[in-house]
């Protein structure tokens, strides 16, 4: 079955461009469009998309609040949200990730990255662009704790190796890069990541990365 995608952006030309790219793929179907967050909520209820490609800055209701309502308790369907950002302008991306977004994508990303991101998110994984994640979190470090706060009790449930893995996830490393850094297999890394998510009650790698910063385990700007 094709991945059902809802396009949410207040710029019609951008929506048209995204539609042309996605409809060229045999496994993706654009089922609708919305120009703001309120329209997006109505379309999600009516169309039951698998993935919502969500802009941040929109009239009436922004992408953060729309994401919160789409992915929050009592949601009407299984839609995943992939946030669109211009990076230099959107200071609310971290808030969108906290609200339940499954990842983010730059608006000027190549077409193949957009398509791959849709597939990754539809498959239940988080879309973390390793080269961008660290820059994004560091850029918005003022929104995050300084690292002097007490470590949450839940962090103590992790083994030393799981803490290592969590730190590397937070710094934007892929499974392959983590495996190379720790001299283990990618399968072992996936197992560790799974244990981290389960023990901390987190949905995906995005939430794990934000948790690591919020808990003070990783400090913005640290190597």
UniProtKB/TrEMBL annotation:
<protein>
    <submittedName>
        <fullName>Response regulator transcription factor</fullName>
    </submittedName>
</protein>
<keyword id="KW-0238">DNA-binding</keyword>
<dbReference type="InterPro" id="IPR058245">
    <property type="entry name" value="NreC/VraR/RcsB-like_REC"/>
</dbReference>
<dbReference type="GO" id="GO:0006355">
    <property type="term" value="P:regulation of DNA-templated transcription"/>
</dbReference>
<dbReference type="GO" id="GO:0000160">
    <property type="term" value="P:phosphorelay signal transduction system"/>
</dbReference>
<dbReference type="GO" id="GO:0003677">
    <property type="term" value="F:DNA binding"/>
</dbReference>
<keyword id="KW-0804">Transcription</keyword>
<feature type="domain" description="Response regulatory">
    <location>
        <begin position="4"/>
        <end position="122"/>
    </location>
</feature>
<dbReference type="InterPro" id="IPR001789">
    <property type="entry name" value="Sig_transdc_resp-reg_receiver"/>
</dbReference>
<feature type="modified residue" description="4-aspartylphosphate">
    <location>
        <position position="55"/>
    </location>
</feature>
<dbReference type="InterPro" id="IPR011006">
    <property type="entry name" value="CheY-like_superfamily"/>
</dbReference>
<dbReference type="Pfam" id="PF00196">
    <property type="entry name" value="GerE"/>
</dbReference>
<feature type="domain" description="HTH luxR-type">
    <location>
        <begin position="151"/>
        <end position="216"/>
    </location>
</feature>
<dbReference type="InterPro" id="IPR039420">
    <property type="entry name" value="WalR-like"/>
</dbReference>
<dbReference type="InterPro" id="IPR016032">
    <property type="entry name" value="Sig_transdc_resp-reg_C-effctor"/>
</dbReference>
<dbReference type="InterPro" id="IPR000792">
    <property type="entry name" value="Tscrpt_reg_LuxR_C"/>
</dbReference>
<keyword id="KW-0805">Transcription regulation</keyword>
<dbReference type="Pfam" id="PF00072">
    <property type="entry name" value="Response_reg"/>
</dbReference>
<keyword id="KW-0597">Phosphoprotein</keyword>
